[in-house]
Amino acid sequence: MYDGLRGQSALVSRPKVARSFSQDTAELFFEDVRLPKSALLGGENHGFYCLMQELPQERLLIAVMSLAHSEWMFEETRKYVKERKAFGKTLANLQTVQHKLAEMKTDICVGRAFIDQCMKMHCEKRLDSGMASMAKYWATDLQNKVAYDCVQLHGGSGFMWEYPIAKAYVDARVQTIYGGANEIMKELIARQIVSS
């Protein structure tokens, strides 16, 4: 919102399913608002283009956060299954648990290599919309898959708010929505593939 303008108002913050981190969500209303030329972003009718230039960086940031959350959830779960006993031994001794840990760790390592490549491209100013969209789509889907698998390995404890994995499971869902829903990411990736 722009300070000192008549006709603008905001409703109270809207509650969300996930923990909101530091991001407020509110409805903004503008009625007969007149902006001075100095308030225009990128010139008249060019604000959206300015915003579009920053979307690859935003999507890469979401990918980095998603991968970091995946790594954290994996470590929390690895510790949990090494301590939790069932059938006279720890869950970590069960082959099905070991295989699930191996799958998650492999996916996370592959994701880290791809995201690192995207970070390098971003630093070299070579990250395009398609690559950023791939990173965001893939990493946020991975975060949701890892969250699901980690809750599964926690069993009933995975649904108790006292366990951080339950909160991480709820928080993971929004990642596939903000910054552009993953369905939009696929559309952007496909457009680039078809047009090149």
UniProtKB/TrEMBL annotation:
Q: Which UniProt keywords apply?
A: FAD, Flavoprotein, Oxidoreductase
Q: Which GO terms describe its biological process?
A: carnitine metabolic process, CoA-linked; fatty acid beta-oxidation using acyl-CoA dehydrogenase; long-chain fatty acid catabolic process
- Single GO cellular component term: mitochondrion
Does the keyword Oxidoreductase belong to this entry?
yes
Q: Which Pfam families match?
A: Acyl-CoA_dh_1 (PF00441)
Cofactor(s) annotated in UniProt: FAD
Task: Please name the GO terms that the record assigns under molecular function.
Answer: flavin adenine dinucleotide binding; long-chain fatty acyl-CoA dehydrogenase activity
Q: Tell me what this protein is called.
A: Acyl-CoA dehydrogenase/oxidase C-terminal domain-containing protein
